[in-house]
Amino acid sequence: xxxxxxxxxxxxxxxxxxxxxxxxxxxxxxxxxxxxxxxxxxxxxxxxxxxxxxxxxxxxxxxxxxxxxxxxxxxxxxxxxxxxxxxxxxxxxxxxxxxxxxxxxxxxxxxxxxxxxxxxxxxxxxxxxxxxxxxxxxxxxxxxxxxxxxxxxxxxxxxxxxxxxxxxxxxxxxxxxxxxxxxxxxxxxxxxxxxxxxxxxxxxxxxxxxxxxxxxxxxxxxxxxxxxxxxxxxxxxxxxxxxxxxxxxxxxxxxxxxxxxxxxxxxxxxxxxxxxxxxxxxxxxxxxxxxxxxxxxxxxxxxxxxx
Amino acid sequence: xxxxxxxxxxxxxxxxxxxxxxxxxxxxxxxxxxxxxxxxxxxxxxxxxxxxxxxxxxxxxxxxxxxxxxxxxxxxxxxxxxxxxxxxxxxxxxxxxxxxxxxxxxxxxxxxxxxxxxxxxxxxxxxxxxxxxxxxxxxxxxxxxxxxxxxxxxxxxxxxxxxxxxxxxxxxxxxxxxxxxxxxxxxxxxxxxxxxxxxxxxxxxxxxxxxxxxxxxxxxxxxxxxxxxxxxxxxxxxxxxxxxxxxxxxxx
Lengths: 307, 252
Description:
The complex is a heterodimer. By secondary structure, chain A is of the alpha/beta class.
């Protein structure tokens, strides 16, 4: 077994490079590994291309910290608060600097990652017809369905292949094999399209726990570059069966990021004054305990016996 | 004074748009409650989809902050990926979809991307999320908006989510096979497309408001549909269902 366990700081240092195309969480509002967002900000990565359907406030935080050169995605904001203040400042007033925006919808960024994952030259879709997204993002091309007897327009979506996908899961083994349950958005497509995958696991388990239920694997370990053990590494985002969403945290971020000084103070408090992921969990203290899902509702037993 | 809030009336108006047995793309906040009310009243066999990959029969019992919260995953009909659920849209299987918006025009086009347009950005909004997909590929679109003159405009500065685009034949010309806005539910009224142009007309005015007030608060010359009426006040059965869904009284 190839051991792939390392600290999140090491994984970000070694596997996330300036200018990379990066996915941080692709399951929309759940399982977003915010611990990686914070670590990327701490290490001062630059000119990243953030690729996402909806990664809640993660992308807004990175934009405000000056880490982002390009947004390739469907949505940047704060699900609790609505608008993303840092996104607005960057797009409207080039603060902290200008931003390139490649507009997508959720389905078209999904099909772009799907094409990237499975080697399609492009993905034809029926969506975004009639939307100005076709006009504001030159990546899309219009074509006519060659299989239709009538003139039927389709939109051709080119593949998107991230350099790095960083994904939160409930549990993984030391080789990066992992289990994820709950809705997965585009996490699997993002992982399979990416050159390098970093798994942020709430729990590290023995390999036989993962191999006991291979149908629950999000991405097998042979496609994983690093696995990092970060309990509650998705906070403030939820993780099915493990952590509730900390909606008050998102509201607080929304209120404080309204102006640049407030955002910087928030960043100092929650990112720079905290050394690493364990330090963050310690700072949350009782607040984190209150978010822990204490109840138990097990899935039914599934028999894989072969003899 | 009737015993319901404006938001409760909007939820019940939205619930009435869902028919029994339909596959519905739900969306957060107000529509999720409307879906719950519809299931408990006239549409017990409706099925709800959420773009993150959750599909549900009965709505979650707890208050949700996002559609991906643990409570929405538990006892779901299906937890899968985005392509699996949005693929149902593309396959033409979704009967009704709900979206919100910052700006809508008289053709039902919705902007959630760039106020001022792409070249002259005044306000950068979060973007499409799944809205453009839901608007293009649901069989009926139901939009939920606050009724303000600056939000209901003659022409949106950027079409994130297509309505009837520029009127008669607009969707067909863009290559969209189905759908279009069926209703726009605001805090003052319900607007519906009318006539060959599919221009949004005033269909019903909520109790306590007047047609003149609605027209005054609309950024285009809003015409009234034939048979324009008052939005029926929530009935007892509907309110009982709503209180059952909204246990904590969030919308009261």
